[in-house]
Design a protein that fits this description.
alpha/beta, 3-stranded antiparallel sheet, 25% helix
């Protein structure tokens, strides 16, 4: 199997540019390139931004990415880390592509229930991206990623709905489920 065939079989991971990969001051978000090296092993990374819709915008994005990739690789080489020369491949799109998953600073996860409290218009109007000065990270840890099989202390029926508060107590947030761990 050729590298091209292997690349084509990877799922697409769509990444927002503004506020996700690039901060408001034009620098990459902390940890992005290190994360991208690992993500490239599993996904085709597609960066989406309206800037990619023009030739000048696309050129500017490519130059930004090249400049910061070189700086990151140089820093990694000085530290002697093996990821300094790891493959990194990106594509650009001016709109979201049909992806396996999208990472964006201005999105919420739809859980299949329009009655979800976080979808109420009053709640949506209070949304803050992590880049907003008023943003504060939640004290609770919650993930909508399916837990691995046989993981301990997750709801057996809805492992992706397991919610953990700051004290470590867990419960299921699925409608009608009363599981507590």
């Amino acid at each position: 199997m050729s590298d091209t065939e292997t690349l084509a079989q990877k799922p697409i991971l769509c990444l927002d540019y503004e506020g996700t990969i690039c901060t408001k001051n034009g620098s990459p978000t902390e940890g992005f390139f290190t994360w991208a090296v690992e993500a490239c092993r599993h996904f085709n990374l597609v960066i989406f931004t309206s800037q990619a819709s023009t030739e000048d915008g696309l050129k500017s994005l490519e130059e930004w990415l090249q400049l910061h990739t070189i700086a990151w690789r140089h820093d990694q080489m000085e530290r002697g880390t093996p990821i300094a020369t790891a493959p990194l491949a990106f594509e650009f799109a001016h709109e979201r592509v049909p992806a396996f998953l999208t990472i964006d600073d201005r999105s919420i996860t739809f859980t299949g229930r329009w009655t979800d409290q976080k979808l109420k218009p009053e709640t949506l109007l209070k949304f803050l991206a992590w880049t907003d000065p008023a943003f504060q990270a939640e004290d609770e840890v919650r993930s909508n990623v399916v837990a691995p099989p046989n993981s301990k202390n997750t709801c057996p029926r809805h492992p992706w709905m397991t919610y953990q508060d700051k004290s470590g107590s867990r419960h299921c947030t699925a409608a009608g489920c009363e599981w507590r761990g």
